[in-house]
Amino acid sequence: MSELASGFDLHAAVGEPVILSPGERALVPTGFCLSMPGELEAQIRPRSGTAYKNGITALNSPGTIDADYRGEVKVLLINHGSESFRIKRGDRMAQMVFQYVPDIRLEEVEDLTETARGAGGFGHTGRS
Ligand SMILES: O=c1ccn([C@H]2C[C@H](O)[C@@H](COP(=O)(O)OP(=O)(O)OP(=O)(O)O)O2)c(=O)[nH]1
Ligand SMILES: [Mg+2]
């Protein structure tokens, strides 16, 4: 809704309102399909306002819209809040952000380059 927003708001294209009970999920249609250049993807992300106020988020966040997908874009919402949430036609329920995807070709190798971190992870740094 603002000039420099990175996300395009996604509106629910539902006939009847969708009621999400606490813990429930639903695949909500947006009413559009799209095509884009092959070096792009689109990500479906939650809106922080509805996440904060109502506990509504995208279960598979960030959802991935592949550049070769031609079906309807849908949003997989889940209610992590404690009250039922109602989504009616036209409600903004998530946002879509476009990203460049590098052209990566994976190769199988015998050895990896060495680093100071090595295989350390999952809270490995900062320990004395
Ligand atoms: O939030 C989402 C996620 C995905 N999709 C559509 C577009 C995407 O290109 C396709 C496949 O999504 P994904 O790769 O996440 O699902 P999958 O379970 O791996 O299915 P597939 O085997 O079809 O790739 O479904 C949506 O409309 N909304
Ligand atoms: Mg897939």
Lay out the secondary structure:
Elements: E1 8-11, E2 18-20, E3 25-29, E4 40-45, H1 48-54, E5 56-58, E6 63-65, E7 74-79, E8 85-87, E9 92-100
Antiparallel strand pairs: 1-9, 2-8, 3-7, 4-6, 4-9, 5-7
Bound molecules: deoxyuridine-5'-triphosphate and magnesium ion.
The site of deoxyuridine-5'-triphosphate (DUT) has 11 residues, from strand 6 and strand 7.
Description:
The chain has 128 residues and is mainly β. The chain is built from 1 helix and 9 strands, in the order ββββαβββββ. The strands form 3 sheets. Strands 1-9-4-6 form a 4-stranded antiparallel β-sheet, with no helix packed on it. The protein has a 3-stranded antiparallel β-sheet with strand order 3-7-5. Strands 2-8 form a two-stranded antiparallel sheet. The radius of gyration is 19 Å and the shape is extended. The mean pLDDT is 96. Bound molecules: deoxyuridine-5'-triphosphate and magnesium ion. Deoxyuridine-5'-triphosphate binds next to strand 6 and strand 7. Deoxyuridine-5'-triphosphate is lined by residues 44, 60, 63-66, 69, 73-76.
